[in-house]
Amino acid sequence: MNTPYPIRLAGEELWLLPEKALYWPDQQALLIADVHFGKAAAYRSLGQPVPQGTTSSNIAVLDSLLAALPCRQLIFLGDFLHGPGSHASGTLDALAAWRARHRDLAMTLIRGNHDKRAGDPPASLNIGVVAEPMLLGPFALQHEPDPHPQRHVIAGHVHPVYRLHGRGRQRLRLACFRFGEHISLLPAFGAFTGGYEVERNDRSRIFVIGDNEIWPVGPHPL
């Protein structure tokens, strides 16, 4: 595991992880958004030339985090499986073997839009599935970044990236965490996902991920 970057949000200490995940020490909870397991397999089933090994790569990163952090629960903020084609035997067999290595860890999926298309994970994976929001402490854990009337929202779905501007025409798009006044976004964990550019304003904080480190962007007013 790479070096975490601690922040405070809604009175809680949270660790931003360069592996594109969030750790909540007080709850011993690891939060992951938008894994999209089986996305490459789904595209290959349609005849699209896409990389192989994304499921095993995602699992390897998860294993390293779970080995390094004391975790009581693993919470997926939606889009665990990408689509119906994600139920390929190779993908499900890999997930079954991974789950067996962590059989005593509580896992919860907050159902996202892709989960509604793909269907819930097989019951044999023993992953609890709930509708959003999942209320935990001061947070509403969700897939969609919709406001909640009483809680600070932590969500996925958007796959946020931030564009850095260098000298001349140099540009670099990096996955990022974006923390707003009422809604915060986690980067997509999956190795085969796109990104939506977000911006920083006077009431937000952005932390980009580069060279296996977390880098704050600009002044952070919150």
Describe what this molecule looks like in 3D:
It is a single chain. This protein is α/β, with parallel strands linked by helices. Helix content is about 20%, strand content about 30%. The protein has helices at about 40-45, 55-70, 90-100, 115-120, and strands at about 5-10, 10-15, 20-25, 30, 75, 105-110, 130, 135, 140, 150-155, 160-165, 170-180, 185, 195, 205-210, 215. Strands 8, 9, 10, 11, 12, 13, 14, 15 and 16 form a nine-stranded mixed β-sheet that branches. It has a seven-stranded mixed β-sheet with strand order 1-2-3-4-5-6-7, with no helix packed on it. A hairpin with a 2-residue loop joins strand 1 (about 5-10) and strand 2. The mean pLDDT is about 85.
Spell out the blueprint of helices and strands.
Layout: E1 5-9, E2 12-17, E3 21-24, E4 29-32, H1 39-45, H2 54-68, E5 73-76, H3 89-101, E6 106-110, H4 113-118, E7 128-130, E8 134-136, E9 139-141, E10 152-155, E11 160-165, E12 171-179, E13 183-185, E14 196-197, E15 205-210, E16 213-217
Helix pairs in contact: 2-3
Brief rundown of the structure:
By secondary structure, the chain is α/β, with parallel strands linked by helices. The chain has helices at 39-45, 54-68, 89-101, 113-118, and strands spanning 5-9, 12-17, 21-24, 29-32, 73-76, 106-110, 128-130, 134-136, 139-141, 152-155, 160-165, 171-179, 183-185, 196-197, 205-210, 213-217.
